[in-house]
């Protein structure tokens, strides 16, 4: 994911601090409501998808919220990302979730919603204080 951070749409918004995602990953592995899925190709890790189960803050409906969804550039045309998403949706449903919340990078909203069946519910913004 660090490669994506340094070269992707978030490079000017999110500071590079490699220790932070490592600590987060350690906490997520131990968290009972967090699930981590990985995609391997030819013995190499090429993708990861992590989600957290929680009761939605308004409706109370059990929700799966994507925390991490990353696929290495060389594996993006192999459906690795979709396989991870499909497996995450299946697992979340089996664990009692009735809805899934995903994010996508700026500029990919129309393609994402068209291909995924998801609907846009809001647009987020971030600013340095």
Key phrases:
four-stranded mixed beta sheet; 26% strand; GNAT_dom; 129 residues; 4 helices; single chain; Acyl_CoA_acyltransferase; alpha+beta; Aminopeptidase
Largest sheet geometry: 4 strands, mixed
Mean pLDDT across residues = 86
The CATH class designation is Alpha Beta
**Total domain count:** 1
CATH architecture classification name: 3-Layer(aba) Sandwich
Helix share, percent: 25-40%
Overall, the morphology is globular
Determine the structural class based on helices, strands and strand pairing.
alpha+beta
* Low-pLDDT segments: none
Query: In order across it, which strands form the biggest sheet?
Result: 1-2-3-4
Strand fraction: 25-35%
Q: What's the CATH superfamily, by name?
A: Gcn5-related N-acetyltransferase (GNAT)
Distance between the termini: 25 Å
Report the radius of gyration as a whole number of Å. 15 Å
Q: Give the strand tally.
A: 4
Order of helices and strands: HHEEEHEH
Number of helices: 4
> In CATH terms, what is the fold-level topology?
Aminopeptidase
